[in-house]
Write a structure and sequence with these properties.
The chain is an alpha+beta fold. It has 2 domains: 3-131, Fructose-1,6-Bisphosphatase, subunit A, domain 1 (Fructose-1,6-Bisphosphatase, Chain A, domain 1, 2-Layer Sandwich); 148-253, D-Maltodextrin-Binding Protein, domain 2 (3-Layer(aba) Sandwich), CATH 3.40.190.80. Helix content is 36%, strand content 25%. The protein is built from 8 helices and 15 strands. The protein has helices at residues 3-25, 43-59, 89-93, 158-163, 167-175, 185-194, 207-219, 246-253; strands spanning 33-34, 40-41, 64-67, 71-72, 79-87, 100-107, 110-118, 123-128, 133-135, 138-139, 152-155, 179-181, 199-202, 223-225, 238-241. An 8-stranded mixed β-sheet has the order 4-3-5-6-7-8-9-10, with helices on both faces. The longest helix is centred in the N-terminal third of the chain and has 23 residues, at 3-25. The protein is globular and about 50 Å long.
Length: 256
């Protein structure tokens, strides 16, 4: 087994553990709290991240971790794991099964592995740099639709665009497409990688939201940038597409 395959095997084991913890608490006593930024955190969020951090520290003591709930390790390391224990916590807290754990592995600043595991949907997507994007044993490819008038686009909410003063640009994008749906959070990115839609775009993001989706989209043949067209998983904005409609959407997002 190569080093990259061993890392993927380990990461998939982490995803199995995340799934078990998430489903153990789902629709149960979640002990929900509101963070200072008004987002929610549940006992599952913190339990998953603590568990994954402990597993990583035991298997790879030199590796760093960046997670949504407990931040980043002190110091620096060439290898780093990036964790969102539960993406779409608001869904999870309300009993909506559209939520996922996101896990990415980065070495020397380059993302090499990404996993999106959605136990409530019974779905898991993974990608290893240079080895494609997969849903189980099915290899994924982005769509070949290059005309916005035939494109299906996904987003989190129009409210998020209002908050940053870009609702007109949002309306310009969705108004030029065949169909738009608010499949926000991880699912929009997964659907673009699946080829069932052409774009996912949203503001108000953090590295743990985007790291795993970026690997998945790129390995499926797509493109991920911020709204200025810079390849990045740092946020706070993201546009993920099949690459063919990318420039057309960027133009509308940046037109006053």
């Amino acid at each position: 087994m190569s080093e990259s395959e061993a890392l993927l095997t380990f990461a998939l084991e982490l995803a199995d553990a995340s799934d078990r913890i998430a489903m153990k608490h789902f629709r149960g006593d979640l002990q929900i709290q509101t963070k200072p930024d008004r987002t929610l955190v549940t006992r599952a969020d913190t339990e998953i991240e603590r568990h994954l951090r402990d597993r990583i520290a035991s298997a790879f003591p030199s590796h760093a971790v960046l997670g949504e709930e407990f931040g980043k390790d002190s110091g620096s390391a060439e290898s780093r794991w990036i964790i969102d224990p539960i993406d779409a916590t608001a869904n999870y807290a309300r009993g909506v099964p559209v939520f996922a754990s996101l896990l990415a592995y980065e070495r020397a600043g380059e993302l090499l592995l990404g996993i999106i595991s959605a136990p409530g949907l019974g779905q898991r997507w993974h990608a290893l740099r240079g080895h494609g994007a997969w849903n189980g044993t099915r290899r994924l490819h982005v769509s070949q639709i290059g005309d916005l008038a035939r494109a299906q686009v996904f987003y989190a909410s129009r409210t998020a665009f209002i908050a940053i003063g870009r609702e007109k640009q949002f309306d310009a994008v969705v108004g030029s497409t065949w169909r738009d749906r608010g499949f926000g959070d991880f699912w929009g990115y997964a659907l673009v990688a699946e080829g069932t839609g052409e774009a996912m775009f949203e503001p108000e993001l953090f590295p743990w939201d985007l790291a795993a989706p970026l690997v998945l989209i790129e390995e499926a043949g797509g493109r991920v940038t911020d709204f200025q067209g810079r390849r990045s998983y740092q946020g706070p904005t993201a546009l993920a597409t099949n690459a063919l409609v990318h420039e057309a959407i960027l133009e509308k997002l940046n037109h006053d």
